[in-house]
Design brief:
The chain is mainly beta. It folds into 3 domains: about 15-180, Immunoglobulin-like (Sandwich); about 180-260 and about 410-435, Immunoglobulin-like, CATH 2.60.40.10; about 265-405, no CATH class. Helices cover about 5% and strands about 40% of the residues. The protein has helices at about 110-115, 325, 395-405; strands at about 10-15, 55-60, 70-75, 80-85, 95-100, 120-125, 125-130, 135-145, 155-160, 170-180, 185-190, 200-210, 220-225, 235, 240-245, 245-250, 265, 275-280, 285-290, 295, 330-335, 350, 365, 365-370, 375-380, 385-390, 410-420, 425-435. The strands form 6 sheets. Strands 18, 19, 20, 21, 24 and 25 form a 6-stranded mixed β-sheet that branches. A 5-stranded antiparallel β-sheet has the order 1-11-12-16-15, with no helix packed on it. The two termini are about 20 Å apart.
Length: about 425
């Protein structure tokens, strides 16, 4: 494709970056092999079971890179790492289950269709926090492993429950298993929009299917995700057959990614007053931190490297041995000043990596008329977080469109094939591109 000077068009040959290693696990548990769609949320978007109030700081990433999306090749010794905290003084073994879903996150296949080994596992790797004001138990689990192997690619959900109680859900997290099939090129095109300071971005892909899957070009679909924001995945299932067998996909112009939220970064690695932390009260348990206000009419500051929707603890907390069990929990109050310091219609929510980048799982903020701002409090572990504010008032959206600067973002591409022999969507490739 020729380069068009008036547009931003970046082409990258896919490099799927995977790290990590498998880990041994525990003896099997019995399972009824029933499909999950009767016992969990289903539908056209990512919906997860409600997280238990005692569960905090859930991380799921590839290998040892806390910033990496949880993507692992089907036939690979690499592993994903699951970490989380239970706000209790003593731990106990927990159970873990694996659920397959199609590209629209509708839960479909039974465990014996997607797992070639045992159908669930137990988590025995946990330890209590050391000398922290708020006691907690830190859990860690790595998979695939000797007891958990996948036989089908696609979208997956890991479910953690009380031991042996499949429906006593503590939390769920999404992850991806790829076939590593076909050749993928990923690009992005900038689109100028009237009244908008930052261009909207329209991702594009060119995909060459593997020889065994070239008979049905319309069985393919592509989904695009900006900055790890999985709940806002945008999909296209109508390829252009420009250079057979190569398939081209791009989002419609009206569905391009626009700057509808300002993205902020919070660094809680050091508990002291900074430009970000306006006031700190270390005499309280838990420690309380009031953050400096974020202004809708000012550009979000750039702080540190992008987190891609992830939580970073190990690489963020300095001066502490084993921050996974020594980092403190902080009662963190976010402050947001709306346009013209006036209350908006509808609710304002603060969400971010601590809520899976999902505003529906975020914290509803309270209007403080005396201060002319919204405030919302979240209990967070020391570390680094991405966050944003969300609301239904069109004034907020228009202000963000007008004020936010040109920023580089990461666009992750997921290529699916609807396999009639399985009755579900296989995930053939995952790629990414950075663009403004």
């Amino acid at each position: 494709m020729p380069i068009v000077p008036a547009r931003l068009w970046f082409l990258l040959t896919l490099v799927v970056v995977m790290v990590g290693a498998g880990s041994g696990c525990v003896p099997p548990q019995t399972d009824d092999s029933t499909t999950e769609k009767a016992s969990g949320p289903s539908g056209g978007a990512l919906r997860l079971a409600a997280q238990d109030a005692k569960i905090r700081t859930v991380q799921l990433y590839r290998g040892s890179d806390e910033r990496a999306l949880p993507v692992v090749p089907l036939q690979s010794p690499e592993a994903l790492t699951l970490e989380f905290d239970l706000l209790k003084e003593e731990g106990r073994p927990l159970s873990v289950y694996f659920i397959h879903a199609d590209r629209q996150w509708r839960r479909d296949l039974s465990p014996n269709q997607v797992l070639s080994s045992y159908q669930n596992d137990r988590i025995f790797d946990y330890q209590s926090s050391r000398g922290t004001a708020v006691p907690y138990v830190h859990y860690e689990y790595r998979f695939p492993n000797d007891d958990i192997r996948f036989r089908v690619s696609g979208n997956f959900i890991v479910r953690v429950t009380k031991r042996g109680q499949r429906d006593s859900v503590l939390f769920e997290q999404p992850f991806f298993v790829t076939d590593e099939a076909g050749q993928l090129e990923v690009g992005a095109e900038g689109i100028a929009v009237s009244g908008q300071r930052q261009q909207s971005v329209r991702p594009k892909v060119r995909f060459s299917p593997p020889a065994a899957l070239r008979g049905d070009p319309f069985g393919y679909a592509v989904c695009f995700v900006q900055n790890g924001h999985l709940p806002d995945a945008r999909c296209r299932d109508e390829p252009t057959l420009a250079r057979q067998p190569q398939l081209s996909f791009e989002l419609e112009q009206e569905r391009a990614f626009a700057p509808i939220t300002a993205n902020y970064t919070l660094d809680l690695s050091n508990l002291r007053s900074t430009n970000t932390i306006e006031r700190l009260d270390a005499t309280r348990t838990p420690v309380r931190a009031l953050l400096a206000p974020d202004y809708a009419e000012l550009a979000a500051p750039t702080r540190g490297s992008p987190l891609n929707g992830r939580i970073v603890v190990q690489d963020a907390v300095d001066g502490r041995a084993s921050p996974d069990v020594s980092a403190e929990y902080v009662e963190t109050t976010f402050a947001f000043v709306p346009p013209s310091d006036r209350r908006l219609s509808g609710n304002v929510v603060v969400a971010g990596s601590f809520s899976g980048m999902d505003p529906s799982r975020g914290t509803t903020m309270t209007w403080r008329p005396g201060a002319g701002r919204y405030e919302g409090t979240v209990l967070l572990k020391q570390g680094r977080y991405g966050y944003f504010y969300s609301g239904t008032d069109p004034t907020l959206r228009e202000t963000i469109r007008r004020t936010q600067p040109l920023r580089r973002s990461t666009y992750t591409t997921f290529v699916y094939y609807r396999d009639p022999s399985l009755g579900t969507d296989r995930l053939l490739r995952v790629g990414r591109v950075e663009a403004r």
